[in-house]
Specification:
alpha/beta; 3 domains; binds pyridoxal-5'-phosphate; Aspartate Aminotransferase, domain 1; Aspartate Aminotransferase, domain 2; four-stranded antiparallel beta sheet; five-stranded mixed beta sheet; globular; 15 strands
Length: 468
Amino acid sequence: MTASPGTDPRARLPSLDRLMDDPELAHIVEQWGRRTVLDEARQLLASLRRQIDPGSEAPGPGEIIAALTQRLQSTPGRGPRPVWNLTGTVIHTNLGRAPLPISAIAAMAAAAGSSDVELDLDSGMRGERDHHVERLICDLTGAEAATVVNNNAAAVLLVLNTFAQGKQVPVSRGELVEIGGSFRMPDIMRRAGSILVEVGTTNRTHRADFEEAITDHTGMLFKVHPSNYAIAGFHQEVTIPTLAEIAHAHGLPLAWDLGSGSLVDLSRFGLAREPMPSDALAAGADLVTFSGDKLLGGPQAGIIVGRRTAIDAVRRNPLKRALRVDKLTLAALGAVLRLYGDDARLLQELPVLRLISRPAQDIRAQAERLAGPISDLLGKNWEVTSVALASQIGSGALPVANLDSAGLAISSRRERGRGAEVEDLQRRLRRLPKPVIGRIAQNRLLLDLRCLDDETALLADLQSLGAA
Ligand SMILES: *Cc1c(COP(=O)(O)O)cnc(C)c1O
């Protein structure tokens, strides 16, 4: 038996075309793209048709659009969206690492159309991509030459593949690190075609360990800065000057993977000194690799600096073509490197250094200003207090250094189920139009304010939390 169109609620569901034409859908289409919204809308209408009981009411257009929005909410594919990083980790890999300075963002926009990426405007001939940043990198590190690839993992891969494909590479057991996100030194070496020769022990490696490991099949010596972990106590590593002596006595190149590779001495901010690329080169490394988006504060990139002949060899490797950077990266990197010429501007304008060096009393004052308004916003079920916190640099830079910071601790006043309440609040914050990312510790949601630059905008964004 079939119901007449007037009585069957399924017949009152809008057609896919009509639903897609609803002006209320425009902003959803803007966010996810027409293709994805169409697909989800088709599935939603089909499931409504199956579920609706013939005796009941059909959902109205408002409800259908709300249901569609809900479905899409948990669908990835909206592209990277801006978030409030209140995690306390300044260079957070999951949050896009270094926030770029305004000058770099402008440089990317300017280069986004047609630009002279590989055109020498002087001669009209084909140019070299690296030339846009090579001079700057060399001036800042004292290197003879430099090249840039997609990220530091690519830089390491390329260096190993260039000098040690099918050859042995002795590396200290204490430096066979995992960086996170599946970057493990032994795996990268295998993919580069190099044969890893482990030398020494986890905590102690000596000069003789390297000397004994060198054979006719050795391609290069390689040192890794363990960046994201610290060894304390009974520990011995072979330093770069010693490794350089051994390598050069055998006619081998020496590379040092620095990881973060800061271009400023962090002891200026009361932090431990991270080895700098200039130190590494001065100490005798032929090649040094480091990331563009860690302490340097720029876009994702891997920078290789070193001797001219070594860099030329790296450039000739066909893999370089597969790992090259695009015009946007070059534009952003150039703009960031130009800030390094001017110390006062650097600390003002480079977010990574500004945030790392932000005084704790500044952050404390901000936490005290925000505690009241945020408490009012959340209502009487929540207790909001300003607390002292410890931020981290993140991304493997100075893993044991804590930066004195401050923020808000938010806890539920309920007798029971506080853990679940706090997790629910965290989820609601993640679902805001500009998600707020904090962390939970001991049933409290902690919002570290070190990276909060615009508190008025944060408060405005939080208004919709009450509405949700
Ligand atoms: C971070 C890091 C890498 C990987 O660099 P990416 O830029 O993330 O690819 C490699 N080696 C060390 C020592 C690192 O700290």
